[in-house]
Amino acid sequence: MTGYSARNVKVPIGGHVYRLRVLSDEQQFSDPDGYGPRLGISSAQWSQFGQVWPSGLLLAQAMHRYKIANKRILELRCGIGLASLVLQRRGADVIASDMHPLTEAFLAYNATLNALPAVHYHRLRWNVPQPALGHFELIIASDVLHERDQPLLLAGVIERHASPAAEVMVTDPGHSHSTEFSRLLAAQGFDLTEKRCPMNDNDTVPYRGRLLHYIRAKRCTSA
Fold first, then answer.
1. pLDDT, one tens digit for every residue, the chain (223 residues)
2. In sequence order, what DSSP letters do the residues of 36-81 get, joined into one string?
3. Which letter, b or e, does each residue of 44-79 get, where b requires 16 or more Cβ atoms within 10 Å of its Cβ?
4. SS3 per-residue string spanning 86-136
5. The domain spanning residue 176 has which CATH number?
6. CB atoms within 10 A of CB 38
7. Which residues form the signal peptide (predicted)?
8. Closest CA to 120 of 155, 153, 78
9. 142/55 Cα distance (integer angstroms)
């Protein structure tokens, strides 16, 4: 697919500099095959996958510190895949997922750009059950609570794919829909710990960014 322009950026995380191919700006759009409307992606949303957003950077930083041993990890709406690349570099068992038609190509390119093995990728629409994807001990995402229907859809994905003992980590710039999402996860047995984080160098206390960390002790599952 052509018709858009890209650039390379460098993002330091944990003493390592990641090289990333991103879209040149937020106005990029190229959908000659008409995938967007079929996937529910509007022209205004089309370019959002291809940027390094502050919440995505927060998530990648968290994944640099997270204890990955014996954890199967799923990233939702991975975009260019920075958090998954951080996990891949650490040797984690990670699957990146999204539904944007360009995500897989950008993810593969960025893995190569950083001399990493290809990250396992899965095209995942939140409203379409995919039992073959299996279960995960950690599910992560960033910037996924800005639309009204997202809390319910996201909670549905977690209900289907979270292991009996699981964690969910979501970074968010303060969208009001996070309250509804937390309520839905509480109904699934998750307890929430919230940490405020600066979204950029100019952010002041109380910070806008939030690291929402949900933990569920082992329980029976119907799946």
1. 466 889 999 999 989 999 999 998 877 656 556 566 656 666 556 567 889 999 999 999 999 999 999 999 999 999 999 999 999 999 999 999 998 889 999 999 999 999 999 999 999 999 999 999 999 999 999 999 988 999 999 999 999 999 999 999 999 887 779 999 999 999 999 999 999 877 666 767 777 778 999 999 875 444 3
2. HHHHT--TTTGGGGGS--HHHHHHHHHHHHS--TT-EEEESS-TT-
3. eebbbbbbbbbbbbbbbbbbbebebeebbbbbbbbb
4. HHHHCCCEEEEEECCCCHHHHHHHHHHHCCCCCCEEEECCCCCCCHHHCCE
5. 3.40.50.150
6. 10
7. none
8. 78
9. 6
Which residue type occupies 178? Answer: S
Whether 221 maps to a domain, the answer reads: no
**Structural domains in the chain (count):** 1
Distance between CA atoms of residues 103 and 87, nearest Å: 17
- Cβ-proximal residues to 16 (8 Å cutoff; 6+ apart), any chain: 89
Judged by DSSP in three states, 188 sits in coil
Q: Are 197 and 204 in contact (CB under 8 A)?
A: no
Residue-range definition of the domain harbouring residue 157: 6-216
CA–CA distance, 172 with 53 (Å, rounded to integer): 10
Identity of the residue numbered 179: T
Decide if 45 is inside a domain.
yes
| Distance in angstroms (rounded) separating the CA atoms of residues 165 and 161 | 11
Residue 148 falls within a domain, yes or no? yes
Residues 6 or more apart whose CB falls under 8 angstroms from that of 112 comprise 118
Compute the half-sphere exposure of residue 95: CA atoms within 13 Å on the CB side of its CA. Answer: 16
